[in-house]
Amino acid sequence: MYLILFAIAFAILFALFKLTRVYSQWRDKGVPYIKPIYFLGNFGGNVLRLKSFETLTRECYNAFPNSRYVGLYQFRQPILLIRDPELVKQITIKDFDTFPEHVSVFTMGLEPLLAKNLFNLTGSDWHEVRSTLSPSFTSRKMKVFFTLMAECSDQFINYFKESGDGVQVEVMDAFTRYTNDVIATCAFGITCNSLKNRDNEFYLMGKDASRFSGVKMLKFFGYSSCPSIMKLLNIKFFGVDVDAYFRNIIKETLRIRRQEKIERPDMINLLIEAQRNPKNAEHQMTDEDITAQALIFFLAGFDTVASAMTFLAYELAINPDVQRKLHEEICRTSGEVTYETIKSMSYLECVLSESLRLHSNVPFVDRRSTKPYTIEPVDPSEKPVYLEKGTVLWLPTCALHYDERYFPNPKKFDPERFREENRSKIHQGVYIPFGSGPRACIASRFALLEVKLIVIRLLQNFEIVPNAKTAIPLIPDKTSFNGLPADGVWVTLKPRRVN
C-alpha cells in the first residue's frame, strides 16, 4: 500500500517538475526576468481580467529599465521581450534570416483557413504567397483601390449629413462599417453600404469573426500555448457559421467570375490570376488558399484599421488646435480629394503617425527563430545569451512608443514629433506601428490610405467635438486587445458652415 502511495506521489512530483522546469529558463541564462505564476506565466492578470494586455506588456517592459531584454512566460511558453531599438532592428532586418517567422498559432488540422493565411505561413510557403500578394499594394494598385475607397467614403459622409445637425456617434461602430465596406469592395467585389444596411450578413459575419476579446482571446492563448490540447478538445477559433459563410462567399464569387469571365480590379482577381499562372508549379494555389488570403485581408483590415480611425477621431476631438491646423491644410487643396493630394499632406502624415504611436494597433509583434542565435553583450554587465531554435521574441510596440527616452512626455498627443526635421531623429527600431523588416505588414499602405481618406472627408464636412459621453481619458477594456473602452468612443459630428 505504502509503495503504491509512494509511487503515485513520486509520479505527481515528477510531472510537476517536468511541467514547471521551463520556468527556470531565463534564470539559468542570466536574463533579467519577471517571476511567473505557475501555468499562467506573467499574463494571469489578463486571463483573470484584472489588467489589459497592453498594460501588462508595458509593466513587463518597465520592470528592468537598464536591460536590453526581459524574460517572460506566456503560460508555459518562454518569451524574450526586446527593449533595445538597435536589437529590434538587428532581429527584424539584419538577422532576418534567423527570425523570419511569426509564431504559427493555427494548424491545418484544426483551422485550415487561418493556418494558410500569410501571417501564419512560414518558409517557402510564406515567400510564395507574399510575392503573389505584393503587386496588390503597388502605387498603381493603390490608385485603383482609392477610387473604390472614395465611393465608400461618399456613402459614409452622406449618411451622417442626412442624420441631422450635431449627431452623436459611437465612432468605432461607424468606422467598422466603413472598413467593412472598403474591404468588401476592394477584396471581394461586394457592395454593402453597412451604415444604411446595418444588418447585412457580410458585416455581421465580419464583426463576429474579428471580435478579439473575452472567450476568443482565451482561445488564442490556448492555440499559441497548448495547441495539442485545443486539437484534442476540437476547440474551433471561429464558429462553424463564420467559417462556412466565408468559404461559401468566396466559392460563389470564384464560380461567377470564372463562368462569366469577369475581371475586376480587386484582390480576388489577383489571386485568380496567380492560380491560373503560378510562378512555381510546386506552389499551385488552390481555392482554399484564395479563401485564406482573402479572409486574413478582411480580418486585418476590419477591426485594426477601424481602431486606428477611432483613436485618431478621438484625439482630434480633444485636441481642437490640432484639428484646426489639419483642417487648414485640407482647405489649402483644390477641394477634390485625389490620391496625389493625400500624398502631399505632410501635417496629416504627422497627425496620423502620432496617433499610431500613442495608440498601437497591437501591443507587440512577434518573431520566432529558425536556428540557434546568440545575443552578444554590448556592456560589461551583460553576458552572451544563447537562444535555441524556436525561441519566441516579442517586440513591444505599445511600450517602445511610450518610452520617454525616445518620446519625451510620451502621453502627450504631439504631431510635431513627426515633422520632417524631427522624424529623422527617431530610431528605426523604436517606431514600428506596422512591424519592421520583410515581415512587416504587407497592407500598411492600403490601411494608411484608407484612414487618411476618411479623415479628410470628415474634416471637410464636419467638426469633430467631444460630448457628454466622451470619456477623457479613455479607460481601456481589460478584456480588449485593441485598447478601446467597453462603452465605446463617442464624439459629435458638427456640420461645418459653407462660406
UniProtKB/TrEMBL annotation:
Pfam families cross-referenced by the UniProt entry: p450
Q: At which positions is heme bound?
A: C441
What is one cellular component GO term in this UniProt entry? endoplasmic reticulum membrane
Primary location group: endoplasmic reticulum
Asked whether the UniProt record includes Glycoprotein among its keywords, one would answer no
What does the record say about its membrane topology? Peripheral membrane protein
Question: What keywords tag this UniProt record?
Answer: Endoplasmic reticulum, Heme, Iron, Membrane, Metal-binding, Microsome, Monooxygenase, Oxidoreductase
Q: In Gene Ontology terms, what is one molecular function of this protein?
A: monooxygenase activity
Q: Does the keyword Membrane apply?
A: yes
Where is this chain's protein located in or outside the cell?
Endoplasmic reticulum membrane; Microsome membrane
| InterPro entries recorded | Cyt_P450, Cyt_P450_CS, Cyt_P450_E_grp-IV, Cyt_P450_sf, Insect_CytP450_Detox
- What's the cofactor? heme
By sequence similarity, the record places it as follows:
Belongs to the cytochrome P450 family.
Protein task: May be involved in the metabolism of insect hormones and in the breakdown of synthetic insecticides.
> What is the name of the protein in this document?
Cytochrome P450
